[in-house]
């Protein structure tokens, strides 16, 4: 079992004086459970000027949470490896990058270029945007 709280709320929410202390308390209490991992997201927008929101989720919560910590949002191969090497997370989730690169692990291993995603096809019905991205080998075969 795992859990994924939304620490920075939804877009446009600026938090309250209790926001960070509440999540500090919640995540500390999660240490009492044998979770497979805790999945947190870095902010989707710049929140560094918002007093009651945390702008560096992994760095802030790694000292609080003792179990496996997964982080996501806007990571590429280099930044994902860096957050793990610095000890701020144990795992990195690659949502958008994985959708547009069905062979993402292979591309990372080869240090190959990754394909861009098309946000207009996300969360729509049908296959476009989810099953039509080529693998690296198919891209090479086309060229």
TrEMBL record:
The name this protein goes by in its record: Flavoprotein NADH-dependent oxidoreductase
Domain of life: Bacteria
Organism: Nonlabens ulvanivorans (Persicivirga ulvanivorans)
A GO molecular-function descriptor: FMN binding
Signal peptide bounds: none
Domain NADH:flavin oxidoreductase/NADH oxidase N-terminal: from-to ranges: 32-110
